[in-house]
Amino acid sequence: MNMRVLALFALMGIATSGFAAAPGKAQQIAEGEKLYKYWCATCHGPGIGQNGAPYLPGETALRAKYKGAVPGLLHERTDLTPEFVKLFVRQGISVMPFFRKTEIDDQQLDAIAAYLTRNSKK
Ligand code: HEC
Questions:
Q1: Does 99 contact ligand 1 (Cβ within 6 A)?
Q2: What's the pLDDT score for residue 65?
Q3: Which of 35, 38, 43 to mutate to test the pocket of ligand 1 (most atoms within 8 A of CB)?
Q4: In a designed cystine with 58, which of 10, 14, 43, 82 is the match (CB 3.0 to 4.6 A)?
């Protein structure tokens, strides 16, 4: 067996291990979506706000902040990173409360971040 064939097998090994990890990732994203809908969509989901406001508070604030440069809905963004999501969730900002580990533990936060960054280009 020459080196090129060996290298090919090595690459195939890397590729298959990547595929093997995929179901776990898909599961994490699905879990994150559920948690996001429970904890975050009350402000960041699509919908109308109180007193006739056209959007919920999260979308309203992010539309104003980015002026259309990125979508107002977090789950439509493609520029988010896990670190960015986790920072805001643990610290809060303006009317967004911070979330304690007793509410959203680290593993759950990883799942929410995986969901929100599933379409991020890196
Ligand atoms: C009570 C309403 C509310 C809830 C609940 C809420 N947020 Fe927010 N969030 C906001 C508002 C409002 C902003 C924008 C604040 C500003 O910049 O003025 C924001 C900002 C953010 C940002 C920063 C986005 C950016 O580009 O600046 C992230 C990330 C975020 N929220 C994630 C989440 C996640 C994840 C959850 C659920 C765990 C969540 N938020 C729950 C209201 C909320």
A1: yes
A2: 98
A3: 43
A4: 43
